[in-house]
Specification:
145 residues; mainly alpha; Arc Repressor Mutant, subunit A; 2 domains; 3-stranded antiparallel beta sheet; 3 strands; 52% helix; 9% strand
Length: 145
């Protein structure tokens, strides 16, 4: 029996959102079922337990995290790319490193990465976000405007 067993749906959402905020993930408004909420809370708790403290995102007050601004879905390729670019913000990152970060070692292609990158670029344009993506022949970076 874990700590989430006797929680209501609203309590699960509140606990999940608190942990998600620490990890820089998007918040939720509801779960499809209480069991799904318990499972997802357990998964985040395990992620928090295994991450070094410096990797946990600092809680922001009144300001959305970069993941909320880009409206990335937790666990998506777009979120993985954004996380990799954000860790090296205002610097160029090699395409090979980005492919490894997004798809795992030797599992992705430049064309697949390009499709995910185009999604980030479109989100910047549509959301009028204060970022720009710069690229060179073998490197890409996320920069503040």
């Amino acid at each position: 029996m874990n700590e989430f067993t006797n929680m209501s749906g609203a309590q699960l959402v509140a606990v999940y959102n608190g942990m998600a905020r620490e990890l820089g993930l998007r918040s939720v408004t509801r779960f499809s079922s209480s069991e799904d909420g318990r499972r997802r809370c357990e998964k985040l708790r395990n992620q928090l337990a295994t991450l070094p403290k410096e990797e946990k995102k600092k809680e922001t007050t009144g300001m959305a995290t970069i993941y909320e601004q880009f409206k990335t879905r937790s666990g998506s390729k777009r979120e993985a790319l954004l996380r990799s670019l954000e860790q090296s913000r205002d610097q160029l990152v090699s395409i090979d490193k980005l492919i490894a970060d997004v798809y795992g070692k030797n599992n992705g292609s430049k064309n697949a990465l390009k499709m995910v990158l185009l999604g980030l670029i479109e989100t910047i344009k549509r959301g009028n976000l204060p970022y720009e993506i710069k690229s060179e022949k073998s490197a890409i970076g996320l920069f503040e405007k």
